[in-house]
TrEMBL record:
<dbReference type="InterPro" id="IPR044791">
    <property type="entry name" value="Beta-glucanase/XTH"/>
</dbReference>
<dbReference type="InterPro" id="IPR000757">
    <property type="entry name" value="Beta-glucanase-like"/>
</dbReference>
<dbReference type="Pfam" id="PF06955">
    <property type="entry name" value="XET_C"/>
</dbReference>
<dbReference type="GO" id="GO:0016762">
    <property type="term" value="F:xyloglucan:xyloglucosyl transferase activity"/>
</dbReference>
<keyword id="KW-0134">Cell wall</keyword>
<keyword id="KW-0052">Apoplast</keyword>
<dbReference type="InterPro" id="IPR010713">
    <property type="entry name" value="XET_C"/>
</dbReference>
<dbReference type="InterPro" id="IPR013320">
    <property type="entry name" value="ConA-like_dom_sf"/>
</dbReference>
<comment type="function">
    <text>Catalyzes xyloglucan endohydrolysis (XEH) and/or endotransglycosylation (XET). Cleaves and religates xyloglucan polymers, an essential constituent of the primary cell wall, and thereby participates in cell wall construction of growing tissues.</text>
</comment>
<keyword id="KW-0378">Hydrolase</keyword>
<feature type="active site" description="Nucleophile">
    <location>
        <position position="126"/>
    </location>
</feature>
<protein>
    <recommendedName>
        <fullName>Xyloglucan endotransglucosylase/hydrolase</fullName>
        <ecNumber>2.4.1.207</ecNumber>
    </recommendedName>
</protein>
<dbReference type="GO" id="GO:0071555">
    <property type="term" value="P:cell wall organization"/>
</dbReference>
<dbReference type="GO" id="GO:0048046">
    <property type="term" value="C:apoplast"/>
</dbReference>
<keyword id="KW-0732">Signal</keyword>
<keyword id="KW-0326">Glycosidase</keyword>
<dbReference type="InterPro" id="IPR016455">
    <property type="entry name" value="XTH"/>
</dbReference>
Length: 316
């Protein structure tokens, strides 16, 4: 009788373990089946550049390998790594295909962003796509953010789950910034639009910026508010970058895109490659795709964070 009880208990425990493992796997957002919307592939309209022609090494030189249109950036105990464009831009189309570090990568941040913090340390602008590494229970997530004129106390974060595994293949990450709006896109699907009108205008980036691609240690905040720091025994953490596309209004000469496109006095001319009608508004298909992404995948928006803001930002 005792042996039968032990056998039944063993079966019960094995069933619980299997159930837990299955439940654990369901946490993965990209393990669910998604039918992605059809959208225009804007990235096909622009030419890729050789990374060495468009970028300089910003930090972690020893952790950067560049080969034509492909680069690998490594985070290890010694340093992270980062690239920055040789030119600064006032508006443009900025895109790259990224593959993120595989495995346990809590606290690791891969960033693809525009910033002028080095030129305007007290009132800088910034447009961010930050990819936040997984903890044992979560996937990588996508964080978007906008700062204007040094508004660091008013972060405008929105966070999204992935609908694919970003560590297994390259995927497109794109920023469109012009006089009409800022658009954040992943695989050509808009996930967020920040218009340059109404209450948004006071928070709209207005000064020329450089594009950065970096991998770094975000242990203090990146994964569950810093609960899960980088564990270097799982490193090194390698982010791969390919097919970079830069087309914008170059402020300091041009080795990419159509060249300078500013009139005297600094106003942007009609030569802006993303100022035409195709880039002034989102199409019906793009609006539908963005609605899909926000309904299915967005899990945080600053406009819903009443515990963080006693007075919500004006555009909310």
């Amino acid at each position: 009788m005792a042996s039968l009880k032990n056998y039944n208990m063993k079966i019960l425990l094995e069933t619980v373990v299997v159930f837990c493992l299955c439940s654990f796997s369901l946490v993965s957002s990209h393990s669910r089946k998604f039918t992605t919307p059809n959208v225009t592939r804007l990235t096909d309209q622009f030419s890729r550049i050789a990374i060495e022609s468009g970028f300089s090494k910003r930090f972690g030189d020893h952790n950067i390998i560049v080969n034509g249109s492909l680069a690998k950036l490594t985070l290890d105990k010694s340093s992270g790594a980062g690239l920055v464009t040789k030119n600064t831009y006032h508006y443009g189309f900025f895109s790259a295909r990224l593959k993120l570090p595989a495995g346990f990568a809590s606290g690791v941040v891969v960033a693809f962003y525009l910033s002028n913090a080095e030129s305007y340390p007290k009132n800088h602008d910034e447009i961010d796509i930050e990819l936040l590494g997984r903890s044992r229970r979560d996937d990588w997530s996508i964080q978007t953010n906008v700062y204007a004129n040094g508004s660091l106390k008013t972060g405008r974060e929105e966070k999204f789950y992935y609908w694919f595994d970003p560590t297994q293949a390259f995927h497109d990450y794109t920023l469109i910034w012009n006089s009409h709006h800022i658009v954040f896109l992943v695989d050509n699907i808009p996930v967020r639009q920040f218009p340059n009108r109404g209450a948004f205008m006071s928070a709209y980036p207005s000064k020329p910026m450089s594009l950065y691609v970096t991998v770094w240690d975000g242990s203090e905040w990146a994964t569950h508010g810093g609960k899960y720091p980088v564990n270097y025994k799982y490193g090194p953490f390698v982010a791969s970058i390919a097919d970079v596309k830069l087309s914008g209004c170059s402020v300091n000469g041009s080795s990419t895109g159509p060249g300078p496109c500013t009139k005297s006095g600094g106003s942007v001319s009609s030569l802006d490659p993303v100022d035409g009608q195709d880039f002034a508004t989102l199409s019906k298909n793009q609006i539908a795709a963005m609605d899909w992404a926000r309904r299915k995948l967005m899990f945080y928006s600053y406009c819903n964070d009443k515990s963080r803001y006693k007075v919500m930002p004006a555009e909310c």
